Every structure is written in C-alpha cells, then in structure tokens.
C-alpha cells in the first residue's frame, strides 16, 4: 500500500493511509486475529453475518418495490 505525501503534509497522508486501511479491512482482520477463534465459532460468526446481509438485502428490495 502506498500513500503520497504532498507538500510535506504528513497529517493528510496519515489520514489517507488510515482510510485506505479501513477500506481494505485491515483493522477488522487485525481485531479478528488478536485472539484464536475456534473453527466452530468462525462458522457461526460467518453464518450470522450472511443472515444479516440477506435480511438487509431483503429490506432494501422491499423498500425499492414499494
């Protein structure tokens, strides 16, 4: 990953880097890897996330069809 520092403005470059890391999901992955997660817990978490995504898609579809 690369961020260009323009006019010696390190604060702006740091903000851009943080935004890129957030978009790539690096923070989320670091949080998940902080502690060991059992395979059964991982499956349960991913299953719950899939259900949540499906419900959100259904809500959006229902709102669009109104």
From TrEMBL:
Gene Ontology BP terms: translation
GO cellular component: ribonucleoprotein complex; ribosome
Record-linked InterPro entries: Ribosomal_bS21, Ribosomal_bS21_CS, Ribosomal_bS21_sf
Molecular function GO labels: structural constituent of ribosome
Signal peptide range in chain numbering: none
PROSITE patterns in alphabetical order: RIBOSOMAL_S21
Keyword presence, Ribosomal protein: yes
Keyword annotations: Ribonucleoprotein, Ribosomal protein
Record-linked Pfam families: Ribosomal_S21
Region (Disordered): 34-66
Gene3D superfamilies xref list: Ribosomal protein S8 (1.20.5.1150)
Ribosomal protein in keyword set: yes
Biased composition (Basic and acidic residues): 37-48
Family, as annotated: Belongs to the bacterial ribosomal protein bS21 family.
PANTHER family (alphabetical): MITOCHONDRIAL 28S RIBOSOMAL PROTEIN S21, SMALL RIBOSOMAL SUBUNIT PROTEIN BS21M
Name assigned to this protein: Small ribosomal subunit protein bS21
């Amino acid at each position: 990953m690369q961020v260009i520092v323009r006019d010696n403005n390190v604060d702006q470059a740091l903000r851009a880097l943080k935004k890129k890391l957030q978009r790539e999901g690096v923070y989320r992955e670091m949080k998940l890897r902080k502690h060991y997660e059992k395979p059964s817990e991982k499956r349960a978490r991913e299953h719950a996330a899939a259900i949540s995504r499906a419900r959100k898609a259904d809500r959006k579809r229902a709102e669009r069809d109104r």
